[in-house]
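Annex B. Sample input.
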Amino acid sequence: MYQNNLLELHKITNKIPEIVIIEPLDSLEACSAIQALHQWKIVILKLSKLEFDQAQRVVDFIIGGTYAINGHSQLIGKQTFLFTPNFVQVINQSSVITV
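Annex B, continued. Sample output.
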C-alpha cells in the first residue's frame, strides 16, 4: 500500500540511489551516517564491532539525526539498523524481527 504523495526515489535525486554500509569502530564514525543521510543516501549501520554502551550511544545519536531530517529508522537484524531519508518508505512485511 503506497501513499499518493510519495515520489519515486530516482525522480527526487536524478541519480541511482545509493546505500551506504557503515560498520563503525568508534563513536566518532557515527557522523558519517548523518552526513550520508543528509546527502539522501540510505544507511545500513552494523554495530557488531562496538561494545554495548558505545553502540547504544551511536544508535541514539543517529536516530536523533534521522529524526531531525524527518527520516526513518528500523532495526533489521541483530545489531543492524536501517536509516533512510524521509522520501524512502520502508515496509516491514514480517511481524517479528528476531534479534
